[in-house]
Structures are given as structure tokens and as C-alpha cells.
Amino acid sequence: MNHFIAEYLGNIIPVSFNLSQDGEIVKIGKDEPEFTVTLHKDLSKEELLTSTSLALGEAYMRGDIEVDHDLYEVLNKFMGQMDKFSSNKSVLKKLIFTSKSKKNQEKEVTSHYDIGNDFYSLWLDESMSYSCAYFKNESDSLYQAQVNKVEHTLEKLHLEEGMTLLDVGCGWGFLLKYAAKKYHIKGTGITLSKEQYKKFSEDIKAEGLDNVLDVKLMDYRDLPKSGLMFDRIVSIGMMEHVGRGNYELFLDCMKSVLKPKGLFLLHYISALQEFPGDAWIKRYIFPGGVIPSLREIINIMGDKHLYTLDVESLRRHYNRTLLCWRKNFLEHRDQIVQMEGEEFARMWEIYLSACAATFNNGIIDVHQILMSNGVNNDLPMTRIV
User: Which of 129, 238, 118, 225 lies closest to 176 in space, CA to CA?
Assistant: First the structure.
């Protein structure tokens, strides 16, 4: 048994567990073991000290490490201890701090979202919504919760017939299609994903929305010179791709196309403090992704005369959303292995499980911030949602 690894894992896992290696089983902790970690291959001390998440994540992807209980339940026991994880930023500098150029960020975004519509359709719901759902009732299906999220979001924007709505990072277009049909608005979506653009464009034609909806392959930084102006803007799950250092630019671009008194709802994964990001997530899932803190976005808004109207946390809703996605993913796991291979399937399983655990442990949150471009005294004085 490698005593360094036993001590290292015992330091970051706050419950008792068994560690099994080469036929030898050692109990870590004083209480009854809650699960067993089996090492089929020794973990590298150097890799663990460089990045805990990379070392453990890659070992799981390769099948070098196994657990005998549900992966989410095991990760949920210790993801709250991520402040104890090793992360050598000098060694990981090129991975953690990537270029924020248009070309590089387009490459980073498309590497994730252009895996293929066939892949995402296997485990997302029929709305193809890849963001936090809103579970109003215990019995809500994932699809109903995604409809709830769209309704909850659009109600905050106080939409009126004929208004113009911009969706920045529009995904496969469910929100805009819903808004056009229910509120009779005119909408524009922008995305960097060619796969999302293709499907949304096809849906617009198929559903007879050509005269009210449009989707563009566009970087948000091109909005100021677009000549477009909007009554309302919404952005769901896109801010995480902007990158620290570009937040002021992002809000400047939104303000440049938002009419005076116009409303902007920003929905994004947030953090309590400003961290550069997790090395494993950046290497395998979201290259270049950075989670802004709530306070840094609120602070910038004040400088831009973007007035805060409402802030809401949906953290527990995202935990449940991810568990629904994971359930769907596991139900189609054999098909995904055929499409992408065993290592890819293990990578996505640990991604969905770990993200659900980090939301449950409060490591990350998700917030909706509603803001107005300048003072708006025309809105209802009471909160309606």
C-alpha cells in the first residue's frame, strides 16, 4: 500500500473509507467505512501535488481508480473540501490562463458545444436546454422544469408584444421560440456553435417563425457595430465563457445594444470568491471557462450605470438538473460508448457527478441578476415572481 496516497486521500476525504490496492485493504478514518476506493494502478505523487483534480479525474477516466458506491454519492462526501486540493498554478499556467482572443475563445466554446446534436439529444430533455432548470414542484419532469425556467426568466423581463429581445449564447433556441409564441416579441439569438446555429435555424423555418426570429453566428464583441438595438436582453450560461478580464467589455457590449430603461437578465454559474478555475474541467470539459463571483459582476454593473433590480440564487435547482442529466446519460451510456468510447463516457460521468456535488456543497452557485440600463421607474414596484 502506498502510504503517501492513503494519507493524501485521507486528508481531502472527511469521512471514513476503505482503500484497496494490490489485494490489500486499509481503512482510512476512525468510523465505519462508507465506501471503498480501489486503485488498479498507483497514483503519481507528482501529479497529485500538481493538481488533485487532474490526477484523480484522469485516473478515473482511464479506469485506474474505481469506487464501489454511486459516483455522485461518493463525490458529494468530499467536493466541499476542494480548498484542500493541490493546484500548482505556475505549472498549470498555460492550462488555467488561456488567451481571451476571439479566435481562441471560439475554438474553446465550439470544442464543447459542437460535440454533436446527436450526443446532447441523448441526455438533455426535448427542449434541448443545456442550463439550470427550475423545479417549481417536486413532481416536475426535467422538461417541465426547463419550461418553468424559461417562464420564470421571461416574467422578470416584463415583455410586451412587439418588443425586441436578444439572447446572447442562445443555445438551441428554446427560450426565443417560447418567447415569440407566448409574448409575440421579435427575437435575435447569437451563438458561436455551428451545431446550435444549424438546428435553431432549421427550427425557425419548420415552426414558421421566420418573420419574428433570427439566429446569427456572432461573437458578443461584434454587437456594438451591428447597428442592432433591443428592448430586452437575456444571457443564460454564457458568461462563464467570457473570461476574467473581459467582464467589463461584456457589459459594455450589452449596454451598447440595450435601449435606455431596457432590461437585461444575466443568468450564470457564480462563485463566492474569484478563482481562476479547475484544471481538469479546463482540460477536458470547458477550455478557458472561468466562473465569475457574484460580487465582481455587481461591482462592475455600478460603474456602467446598470441598476440592480433583482438577484436570485438557483443553486439547488442546478444540483437537481445535473442529476436528471446524469440519469439520462447513464441510461444511454452504452450508446455513448459506441459513439465516443469508454474513456469519453467515464469523463462525462465524472463531470456531471462532480458538478452536481459542487452545487450541493455550495462550492459554486448559479445566479440570475436582473438589471436596467439607467433608472427605470416604469416597472411594477412589487416583485411579481
Answer: 129
pLDDT score, position 320:
98
Question: How confident is the model at residue 287, as a pLDDT?
Answer: 87
The grid coordinates of residue 206 equal 419548420
- pLDDT < 50 positions in the chain: none
Q: Which long-range contacts (CB under 8 A, 24 or more apart) does 325-330 make?
A: 325/123, 325/124, 325/142, 325/352, 326/72, 326/352, 326/353, 326/356, 328/122, 328/123, 328/124, 328/125, 328/142, 329/122, 329/123
Grid coordinates representing 55 are 490526477
**Do 269 and 365 touch, CB atoms closer than 8 A?**
yes
Reported as half-sphere exposure (CB side, CA atoms, 13 A), residue 228 has a value of 24
Contact 162/184 with Cβ under 8 angstroms?
yes
Read off the DSSP letter of residue 240: G
Residue positions annotated with a catalytic role: 355
The pLDDT of residue 334 is 97
Q: DSSP secondary structure string, 358-373?
A: HHHTTSSEEEEEEEEE
- C-alpha 50/C-alpha 38 separation (Å) is 22
